[in-house]
Amino acid sequence: MSTADVCSTIIKPRTASNRISYVELLQRTGKTACTGEAKWFVSHAWACKFLSVVETIFQKCKDEGLDDSACIIWFDIFSVDQHSGIQHFDHWAISFQEAIRRIGKAWIIFIPYFAVWLERAWCLFELYAMVEGGIIPFEILLPPAEQDAFAQYLINGGKVEDAISKIDIREARAYKQSDQDNINRIVAASVGHGKLNELVTTEMRKWFLSSAESELQKMLNDEKLTSELHLNTAKMYITIGRLSDADTELEKRHQKQLALLGAESLKVAETKCELATVKCRLGQLQVALSMLKEARLIYEKSAVENLELLGNITNRIGLVLYDQGKYDDAMQSYMESLAIKTQWFGPHHVGVASTHVNIGNVYQAQGEYERALFHLNTGLPVLISQLGNAHVSVADTKQSIGIVLANLGNSSKSLQLYQEAHSIYMQALGREHPKTKGIAPFIHNWGPAPYVGPAVTLPYGGPALTPPYGRPAVAPPYGLGRPAVALAPPYGRPAVAPPYGG
Predict the structure, then answer these.
(1) Nearest in space to 396 (alpha carbons), one of 382, 367, 376, 416
(2) How many domains is the chain built from?
(3) Model confidence over 320-332: pLDDT tens digits?
(4) Which of 178, 206, 234 is the last residue of a domain?
(5) Which residues constitute the domain of residue 111?
């Protein structure tokens, strides 16, 4: 039975005659030993299995060494009157936030893992109340049966960022449309959807990362499993800008694969490709280029045809050459990669679109703005269709198009694209991420903040830019590294529809 089932079949019938909460019923019938002042607030989705939620709570109390008298929780189906409904939502919301503030500690229960909780408006509203009440950080709990499954999810390459990308309070649902509307209204009038999404995204990413780090410690002696987990952990580090930590994890994976598979394995070549991308972003360009050449040599010696890997290697060689300022050589690598990927995937693939974007960035750096615009506009619609309109890779591309349009004299569209890109970065990556900070000077050059949330305030920092506008503020690679995160729109002003012209 789910929590919703327990509420409808047990709690409501037993409290129907008095129309009170179950806690009040216990108190009226002299069972006060079962009640008390709550020490923890419990948040969970009502679609979850009720007994799994209870099991998780008992296990947490046991782990904390708490006896029954000390483990007193605020559990909504017991603590809230399930008959009256919410007559005055604003007043109720203030009282609810004050109650959470008094409790001071919170447990969020994920069953399974995270998906259901993140899609429920009430759960995210409870998180909003925790934020307003200063309950950060909160604890995220998994039932014992889910912990092993979650570990396997991380080990087997679970798409963490794809899961995080679905977080959006505006898209979350409640059983009652009126509740959903009221929740959205209160959030919009206070912390703002963008800020709440940013906070949830940040906290979820921290949890995923700490979980991955914990699993690595548990599996130190299992070389095969830790090899895959090193890669997934590195990708999470890359997303939050901890490049040195990502470099460390990928180096560990590289060494383990060399020992397990040998130096000629295509798996080793794939890891060299990932590691070289991080080296490039750390400014170790020559090291990155050498690793990519080694990866290509491994591929050329292999009897296995893997054009996807070859296209990735060639594309990333172009990225390093671009960072070295060798634009003609970078263009040659990108064109080769484009031909390989188009042959392998067809024209409507993310990898093909990303290579078009990289080619556009080279043309932009060379001052060939019309050619740059052609390739950027070729890539952007594919990225939007495949990744969503608010994906970080889409934001990167919009920023690049904004730079080109600025140099072509179309400042109004350029500014709007910068603003759209900044809104995505804010919600997906947070205000402290290099991409978020990097785009601010471009916005500062043209106008005041038009953002819907309170996240950005003037001044944006950094000197205003003067034309001609050069390379993007965000360092590449823009393309084939795993995309950082996706956001569901709306996130501000209406998007400028492609193609973006002069």
Answers:
(1) 376
(2) 2
(3) 999 999 999 999 9
(4) 206
(5) 3-206
